[in-house]
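Posting this for the archive.
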Amino acid sequence: MKKEITISELARLMNVSVHQIRYFEEKGVLEPAYIDNNQYRMYNTDQMYDLSHILMLRKLGISVQDIKACMTSYDAEQYEQIFKQSLQELEAELLRLTKLQHFIRKVLHEHQHTRTHSQNYEIKNRAVTYLQPWVRLQPHEELHARRLAEQADSMPNLFEADVHYIWDESGTVIMAFETTEPSDCCLTNGNYLSYHIQIREEKDLEPIIQQFYDDAAAMTYHLTGPLVLIEKSYLSLFSKNKLHYELLSLIKP
């Protein structure tokens, strides 16, 4: 009985396809132990180890061409560096996926919430929210793409963030986004009157804001502090490009 095995037996043993093994042979990173009289390619334990190392390096993202160089000239320190580099890349990818997971959950939660609470007033108790100012608009100043592009470096993932528009008494609007760092620009803790809206154009905001204040007065809520408008642009996917906003204003105790 032969001690060596055929290519199909090697493929089954290593849980790969015959095509993969032939590909590695074509690229010169794996060779059979010998070819028998029937032209069968035969493999022994040495090729099993070689193939296992090739598959391991492929899992680490090493190209087949680089694997050939690795297996012919790399020492222990160089292999250690490969694993460290792969670990760094994997940790970065895990961080990216974790952030994406949190964002997807946020979008689904916000979509469900706005679907069930749209056009309804709510009282929300909020903790302190620190904000990073981004763009300051003077009264009657138009917000346009050029203005946003000039500030692009300071605002990552613009349309994935909740952009806060804060009106002060002079009519100046500060565009800001949430930050974990303590900041002078913040929403204080307390109860806020909240109202979710969907509109086609920004010009539709003014009468809605006025109605917001009128309704608050009718409900005997005394609002204090600046008016805050939170834009949730990612929700536009669910409603044929309508703009989604949440109106917030602190209720005076």
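The chain is about 40% helix and 25% strand. The chain has two domains: 5-74, 118-251.
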